[in-house]
TrEMBL record:
Matches recorded under InterPro entries: Aldolase_TIM (IPR013785), OMPdecase_AS (IPR018089), OMPdecase_type-2 (IPR011995), OMPdeCOase_dom (IPR001754), RibuloseP-bd_barrel (IPR011060)
Protein name (database record): Orotidine 5'-phosphate decarboxylase
Catalytic activity: orotidine 5'-phosphate + H(+) = UMP + CO2
Pfam families: OMPdecase (PF00215)
Length: 296
């Protein structure tokens, strides 16, 4: 199996930055990100066994159905890790096959640790040649934003990206993310401001989108009190099973809606295992997103 690095630009420029690749994919294919979340209940409803064979079949089916048409596929690492090392081996194959078929792969592993350990997580997912090399990784800044530095540095060097948990889609997130700092800003807003700084040089150099994104739930209602103009993408989970709809996106994100990468996992996956049905569900979400964004 080969593990291809990010595509390179002209010889002197190094790898094409993730944000540039993502913008291109969004323009070509639409902005939808579909999750690969092999819940035990989904394996069962697909008529599969909740074991390694079921995991393998489920993941391969999603890749075959969607990797040649959606901008981003987002494997949820937890559902692979629960099968131990052999589940992780399926994840490796899934990532490689999805990338080979043309999708960008966002690994949803939500890693975050002290800097020295963060460097090892970054090597795991963002170092070219690593078995789990992905185009981008979700990370948690709640050991302090600065603890993410090794991942930021490697992402810049390898043409990959990060999505930092800023304002998550789950109601429990508010306890941490809405907490007020001494300067009166809340923690979520502070993360957005950090990301804007991270993206500034890339955007100033002409990139349409920076490589450092925020996770901002589509479930959160009006976010006009936040500065969402971070120069990078906004991953918006929460559409479908968590209750948000594509039509909510303009209300939630306002003018920043064109930077939004809406994520749907169960809302698409529940239509499997039929490939045509999976494609149809993804297309319906993609159409609804396009209509909602066009209306802004
Ligand atoms: O704030 C967040 C961050 C990540 N997620 C992840 O997205 C998917 C959502 O799945 P659905 O089936 O569409 O609800 C899942 O992998 C979560 O871990 C999130 O939901 N919210």
């Amino acid at each position: 199996m080969t593990h291809s690095p990010a595509p390179t630009g002209p010889a002197s420029t190094g790898p094409v930055p993730f944000g540039t690749r993502l913008r291109h994919a969004m323009d070509e294919r639409g902005p939808l990100c579909v999750g690969i979340d092999p819940h035990g209940s989904l394996l069962t409803s697909w008529g599969l066994t909740d074991d390694l064979a079921g995991l393998e079949r489920f993941s391969r089916t999603v890749v075959e159905a969607l990797a040649d048409r959606v901008a981003v596929l987002k494997p949820q690492s937890a559902f692979f890790e629960r099968f131990g090392s052999r589940g992780v081996a399926v994840l490796e194959t899934t990532v490689a096959e999805a990338r080979a078929a043309g999708a960008l792969v966002l690994m949803d592993a939500k890693r975050g640790d002290i800097g020295s350990t963060m460097a090892a997580y970054a090597d795991t997912f963002l170092a070219p040649g690593a078995p789990l090399f992905s185009d981008a990784l979700t990370v948690s800044p709640y050991l302090g934003y600065g603890s993410l530095s090794p991942a930021v540095d490697l992402a810049r060097a390898s043409g990959t990206g990060l999505f930092v948990l800023a304002l998550t889609s789950n109601p429990e997130g508010a306890e941490v993310q809405h907490a007020l700092r001494a300067d009166g800003r809340n923690i979520g807003a502070t993360m957005l401001a950090r990301l804007a700084r991270e993206n500034a040089a890339e955007v100033a150099a002409g990139a349409a989108l920076g490589s450092f994104g925020a996770v901002v739930g589509a479930t959160l209602g009006d976010l006009s009190s936040y500065d969402l103009a971070i120069g990078g993408p906004l991953l918006a989970p929460g559409i479908g099973a968590q209750g948000a709809t594509p039509a909510d996106l303009p209300k939630v994100f306002g003018a920043a809606v064109r930077q939004v990468v809406p994520n749907v996992s169960r809302g698409v996956l529940r239509h499997g295992p039929d490939t045509a049905a999976l494609r149809g569900a993804a297309e319906r979400f993609a159409d609804e997103v396009r209509d909602a964004v066009a209306a802004v």
